[in-house]
Amino acid sequence: MRTNFSKSDKIFDYVNYALLTMLMIVTLYPFLNTLAISFNDAKDSIRGGIYLWPREWSLDNYKYVLSEKSIYNATIISILRTVIGTVVTVFCSAMVAYAISRQDFILRKFVTIAFILTMYINGGLIPNFLLIRDLNLLDSFWVYILPGLIGVFNLIIIRSFIDGLPESILESARIDGAGDYRTFFSIVLPLCVPVLATVALFSGVFQWNSWFDVFLYNSSTIELSTLQYELQKILQNSNASMTQRTAGDVFAGGGLQNQGTVTPTAIRATMTIVASVPIIMVYPFLQKYFVKGMMVGGVKG
Fold first, then answer.
1. Measured at the alpha carbon of residue 63, what is the angle toward residues 58 and 68, in degrees to the nearest 5?
2. What does the entry give for GO biological process (predicted)?
3. Residue ranges per structural domain of the chain
4. Hey, which end of the chain has fewer CB within 10 Å, N or C?
5. 64-293: which CATH topology?
6. Looking at 21-25, 84-88, 113-117, 293-297, which range is the least confident one?
């Protein structure tokens, strides 16, 4: 069957394709530019003018970053933190979301408001540190997991999804004699796979990129350092080294010609690629669930 398109339809398609192509370029350009700088010679990068392709190919930036022995143990800690933290956070948030979504839960509105208030009211940095210290979580791996056990934003998303589930399914389970635990594990969790995958992606990205809590609570324990924190230290050392070299070269009359093989700009680009690749590799597996989960509440059965 042949479909005839009018001239206005063709114009609309061309404009739509052009806009989507421009959007794709604007979205991909920062990443491709960072990738090009990371593979370009650091000295040459100072000149600028690098866009989508390295001008002088070099692996020195990656050799410099990956030469730090502590980065490998930090990568393992980051993976463990991301996997364990994501699984525990998603599971606990889903359980609480199911509880406050129950119509027969008398305190559901009070508990919901209490959770939401924590998004706007915070005790501050010092009270949080004192709380972590009193809980004996300093210099402990569990300081990465327990404080974020329940994500309020994730809780609201999951609860909204559960509210959109057909009530008849839950009523049928109760009529068949299923208790709350059986209903949650056998019915609610399988139906919530899209939103759970979305929340898992949010939580995983947060856990993977987090470094400030390492600085606050585990900075003295190198065995519990994470990849992001080690990369941050490498960047700081690179900045300090470049400042010292620049001052020495200027004092000696050499200008900027005697700088080392790496620069903070090149190291920053390399760190971005190293830290982003694992998340980029995981995202395609969650993409189809992510799209469904972002449509929470859009269509209710």
1. 160
2. transmembrane transport
3. 64-293
4. N
5. MetI-like fold (1.10.3720)
6. 293-297
